[in-house]
Amino acid sequence: MADEIINRVANSKLITFDLEGFYPEGKRLVFDIKPWLFQELVLREKDFRQFVKEHDWDQYKNNYIALTCSTDAIVPAWAYMLIATKLESNAKKVIIGDLEQLESSIYQDIINTIDFNEFKDKPVIVKGCSNKPVPTNAYILLIEKLTPIAKSIMYGEACSSVPLHKKK
Question: Where do the structural domains in the chain lie, given as residue ranges?
Answer without folding.
Answer: 8-24+103-166, 28-91
